[in-house]
Amino acid sequence: MNVNVKNVIEAVVFSAGYPVTYKKLSELTGCDLDDVIDLVGELADEYKERGINLLMFDEQCQFCSSEQYKEAVNNFLGTSKTAVLSNTMLEVAAIIAYNQPVTRAYIEQVRGIDSSYAINILLDKNLIEVKGRLDIPGKPNIYGTTIDFLRCFGIDSLEELPELV
């Protein structure tokens, strides 16, 4: 495989600053999608023990600073501690993550209490998104998690969530 293609992928993903799809990288480089995913995997392995990591998601990838250097990065940038999610928001996010796609009514049935506020905050933080509408009277929104949810919890896919006991 051409080392130049790997360098192009590295430069583009680093420069983008947001998740880049493997499909877009395939179109850009003219390489087969599977080859692009393999090259991104090689890059991710090369960055495992560095100050930055290459995160691989199901359909896209992104560079981010390594978790172990979070404090140094925050001190340098003058940013405060990452916003903390309340227990209510964590509970709603977990219900959505483990059962998606779900409606607000389902979430409220599981919790036994109104969850509108928590859903709205999670939507504002882009941790969940509307995935569509359920085909029943009233056509309620159905919710699922986002790439930002995965990044927030430091996982590459929902399969990495702990098993429910």
Explain what you see.
By secondary structure, the protein is of the alpha+beta class. The protein contains 8 helices and 6 strands; from the N terminus they run H-E-H-H-E-E-H-H-E-H-H-E-E-H. The protein has helices at 3-16, 22-29, 33-46, 70-77, 87-99, 104-111, 116-124, 147-152, and strands at 20-21, 52-56, 60-65, 102-103, 128-133, 141-145. Strands 1-3-2 form a 3-stranded antiparallel sheet. Helix 2 packs across helix 3 and helix 5 (87-99) crosses helix 7 (116-124).
Enumerate how many helices there are, as a single number.
Answer: 8
Uncertain segments: none
Kindly state the number of beta strands: 6
Principal-axes shape call: globular
Proportion of helical residues: 40-55%
End-to-end span in angstroms?
A: 45 Å
Strand order of the largest sheet: 1-3-2
Mean pLDDT: 89
Structural class: alpha+beta
Instruction: Tell me the fraction of residues in β-strands, as a range.
Output: 15-25%
Topology pattern, helix = H, strand = E:
HEHHEEHHEHHEEH
Radius of gyration: 19 Å
The biggest sheet, with number of strands, parallel, antiparallel or mixed sense and barrel status, is: 3 strands, antiparallel
What is this structure, in a nutshell?
It contains eight helices and six strands. By secondary structure, it is α+β, with helices and mostly antiparallel strands.
